[in-house]
From TrEMBL:
Cofactor: Zn(2+)
EC class of the enzyme, as a word: isomerase
Protein role: Initiates the restart of stalled replication forks, which reloads the replicative helicase on sites other than the origin of replication. Recognizes and binds to abandoned replication forks and remodels them to uncover a helicase loading site. Promotes assembly of the primosome at these replication forks.
Catalytic function, reaction form: ATP + H2O = ADP + phosphate + H(+); Couples ATP hydrolysis with the unwinding of duplex DNA by translocating in the 3'-5' direction
Protein name according to UniProt: Replication restart protein PriA
Length: 837
């Protein structure tokens, strides 16, 4: 999209306007006037600051989407306040992507912008107060107002919080409001960009002492001040100015000298005051800029053949699916393809499903690509993400590895996008809008930039494998494990039999306990998988059957023993663990079921000598928690790792020879049409963590109460094709994806009868046109109330083929607006989830 270049004659003054994307859930762009001073410099894709709404001082960061000279017909355009960028930070491809996502995912373009831009690129504003120098009526003031005004006179401007600290117990907002009414003070918004470069303070010799003779003369003069002389000598040891005076301009990080206990801080202060040293600041990149590649990747024969097959498929197809079993070395194939793309001058995006997986792979990639690679995910600070964003714009990063939000980065020359573990549900965003799937967005991005897409998985999604079978995607298969490794031996352990024989200890069968003990003796590592965090799913009274429930959601509270709390995993509500039953007063309140925390606790009792770690959402909240846990396990400092599905995603450990799986039946029998596919994927992926290096074959023990289940037999034989053939027939019979598109509408309201009324009306209006075979519901979901909102779901199934989906979505939007504009239903909210999972 070319930039609009303004030109105008001196005879005729032309007013210019900009259509802006505002980070708000509003359907339309807003038009603002371009100040004369900006006309020559403003560009499409740049950020600007604009006033918005009736509230004085409210400002927003907006993106310029269009430049023109047509005033808006229905309102008086306000002026843009400030231009933030000399060059566009948002590319024409990104603007096209924003528009497509808003249309496809049935949301507002402002919602896309809000999710796409790291918050460090958005502007924050803070109210400040200053004394009005024109005010001259002190007799109008109360004592409290006089006190506050006197403080204000001492400062150019203060925030409400700063004033509060200075005037003590005064009600600052009330007093300021009164002073504003009397025109004694001025309240304004100080606008600042959230992104702050990381600065380091450095020190260097004054320019006069860069000369050799002057420096030697200084050292002699400081004989009378030995402490100051020692500071200078220490500096010279780090910065050999006598050998090369040019080194002095770089200076030395001040903390290097400050950390030296022998250095007198007062001496340093005196040297700076006397001009012998000078201090200065420089911007320090948050990512190391001196990482050099240290590893060269060599492919095995099977990997080389797979890489060549992918390149051959790319000659005729833009999307290729790499179906490679766990441990087959898909990452090495990716690296080879990334190197080829970078050598051709193209950009590369490597998507991973979540941060747990990035930790290990990022280290491997850095050894190959050094500082050419950027890393982008939500655990990074705002400032770190902004630096990667700007690094892509400037060309510093040609290759970025990141999670789903990395699809929004400002690429303009993509050659290759890799979507690793493409089947993973983590690629789908659930809240807030846009509720996008990064895999699908990546394909659209690639289409606009004529890039190739490689999807990789040991257990591909049925939709992707179907497209490959239909010839729409290329298909390359890699069924040989790296090195001498073989697939693990999978054994089913019948928990019903062991319970009858009373050989189970807590949640552990005797077979699993024996295997864990043997592994511990051999100094090999074990992974234990339970897809439920916390100590216990719920607490119950044995006498009256009372169960601890969330007051905001229709779910039981989960017991977390380490912190002594009951928590809701939906809304975050917490409460203390009751000592007695709050209903009948009984002391017989017990935990029911088990989560990762309970398994960790029981393991420590059963194997007191074992070193045990847990990896779930509770233990990985801190920024570097994933990395610390994985490093500890990699280095052999941990014998057993207990975790949720985080541990299923591509982690690669040499010494893991045993995987234990709990509660497999709950995963298999989840009430959802993808349950069988998901169970196969999850259990196969976690099984694949065992025996990934040559030598001893890995073992997997799956605890189940029904070993005869067909899905478990397919997991044992790694029969993905058998699973696919059965599932695809069933999907076709019941018109589920890939044979249809799904749109879920969730109606929410604090009053159940209003929520139900709105849902029934919406469903009826949709059914009148689309038909009852396409509109299912409304039905209450498994969890009927979340955050005090009652929920009703309507599922729309539209068959693939000649149906005009754009028209269908427009029709759905209109029907939603009909409901939301009804006076009695205005407080209802309706969430639209396109391609719901």
């Amino acid at each position: 999209m070319p930039d609009l270049v303004f030109s105008h004659s001196h005879e005729e003054e032309v007013t210019y306007f900009a259509d802006l994307i505002l980070p708000l859930p509003i359907p339309n762009l807003f038009t603002y006037r371009v100040p004369r001073t900006m006309v020559e410099v403003i560009k499409i894709g740049a950020r600007v600051i604009v006033p918005f709404g009736k509230k004085d001082g409210r400002v927003l960061t907006a993106i310029v989407a269009r430049l023109h000279n047509t005033p808006p017909p229905r309102y008086q355009a306000r002026y843009i306040l400030e231009l933030l960028d000399d060059y566009p930070l948002i590319t024409s491809y990104q603007l096209e992507l924003f528009r497509w996502m808003a249309d496809y995912y049935m949301c507002c373009i402002g919602e896309v912008m809000n999710v796409a831009l790291p918050s460090g690129l958005k502007i924050s504003s803070q109210s400040k107060v200053q004394y009005n120098p024109d005010f001259d009526y002190p007799e109008l003031l109360s004592p409290e107002e006089v006190t506050l005004l006197e403080e204000l006179k001492k400062h150019p401007a203060l925030t409400y919080e700063e004033l509060g600290r200075l005037v003590g117990e005064l009600n600052v907002p009330t007093v300021i409001k009164a002073l504003v009414g009397k025109r004694a003070v001025i309240v304004f918004e100080e606008v600042r960009e959230k992104y702050v470069p990381k600065m380091i303070r450095k020190v260097r010799l004054g320019a006069a002492y860069e000369d050799r003779e002057a420096l030697l003369d200084l050292i002699r003069k400081l004989d009378k001040s030995p402490k100051q002389q020692e500071v200078v000598m220490r500096y010279l040891r780090h910065v050999p100015v006598l050998l090369n005076s040019a080194l002095n301009s770089r200076g030395l990080d001040k903390t290097v000298l400050n950390q030296d206990d022998e250095i007198s801080q007062s001496s340093m202060t005196t040297l700076i005051k006397n001009g012998i040293f000078e201090t200065f600041e420089v911007i320090q990149p948050r990512f190391s800029d001196n990482l050099a590649p240290t590893v060269e990747i060599r492919l095995t024969e099977a990997q080389q053949q797979a890489s060549e097959a992918i390149m051959a498929k790319f000659n005729t197809q833009n999307i290729v699916l790499l179906h490679g079993i766990t441990g087959s070395g898909k990452t090495e194939v990716y690296i080879n393809l990334i190197q080829q793309a970078l050598e051709s001058g193209s950009q590369v995006l490597y998507l991973l499903p979540e941060i747990a997986l990035t930790t290990q792979i990022v280290v491997r990639l850095q050894r190959v690509f050094g500082d050419k690679m950027g890393i982008y995910h939500s655990k990074f600070s705002d400032n770190e993400r902004v630096e990667v964003w700007k690094g892509v714009v400037s060309g510093q990063y040609q290759f970025v590895v990141g999670v789903r939000s990395a699809v929004f980065l400002p690429f303009d020359n993509l050659g290759l996008i890799i979507v690793d573990e493409e089947h993973e549900t983590s690629y789908k965003q659930h809240d807030p809008a846009p509720r996008y799937h990064a895999r699908d967005v990546a394909m659209m991005l690639a289409q606009w930039q004529q890039a190739k897409v490689l999807l990789g998985s040991a257990t591909p999604s049925l939709e992707s494998y179907y497209q490959a079978q239909q010839g729409r995607y290329g298909l390359v298969e890699l069924f040989q494990r790296f090195g001498d490794a073989t697939l693990p031996q999978i054994t089913l352990v019948d928990t019903k039999v062991e319970k009858k024989q009373k050989t189970m200890k807590n949640e552990f069968t005797s077979a699993l306990l024996t295997a864990l003990g043997d592994n511990l003796e051999r100094k090999e590592q074990s992974i234990l998988f339970q897809n439920r965090r916390g100590y216990s799913p719920y607490m119950q009274c044995e006498d009256c059957d009372w169960t601890a429930e969330c007051p905001n959601c229709d779910v039981s509270l989960t017991y977390h023993m380490k912190v002594g709390e009951l928590r809701c995993h939906y809304c975050g509500y917490k409460e203390e663990v009751p000592r007695t039953c709050p209903v009948c007063g009984s002391t017989k309140v017990k935990t029911i079921g088990f989560g990762t925390e309970k398994l960790e606790d029981q393991l420590q009792i059963l194997f007191p000598e074992a070193r045990i770690l847990r990896m779930d959402l509770d233990t990985t909240r801190a920024k570097n928690a994933y990395q610390q846990i994985i490093e500890e396990f990699e280095q052999g400092n941990v014998d057993m790792l207990v975790g949720t599905q985080m541990i299923t995603k591509g982690l690669d450990f040499d010494k893991v020879s045993l995987v234990g799986i709990f509660d497999a039946d709950r995963i298999i029998h989840f009430p959802e049409f993808r349950a069988t596919e998901r169970a196969f994927q999850m259990l196969t992926q976690v099984s694949g963590r065992a025996g990934r290096r040559g030598g001893r074959q890995g073992r997997v023990l799956i605890q189940t109460s029904n070993p005869q289940q067909l899905i478990l037999q397919k997991i044992i034989t790694n029969d993905y094709r058998g699973l696919y053939d059965e599932e695809i027939r069933e999907r076709q019979d019941f018109n589920y994806p890939p044979f249809s598109r799904l749109i879920k509408l969730t109606v929410r309201h604090p009053e159940q009868h209003i929520s139900k009324q709105a849902a029934e009306r919406l469903a009826a209006e949709l059914t009148d046109t689309l038909g009852s075979s396409r509109v299912l519901g409304p039905e209450q979901p498994l969890v009927e109330r979340i955050r005090n909102q009652f929920l009703y779901d309507i599922l729309i199934k539209i068959e693939r083929g000649p149906v005009n989906m754009k028209a269908v979505k427009e029709f759905i939007r209109d029907r939603i607006n009909d409901v939301l504009t009804d006076k009695g239903l205005r407080q209802v909210s309706i969430v639209v989830d396109v391609d719901c999972l």
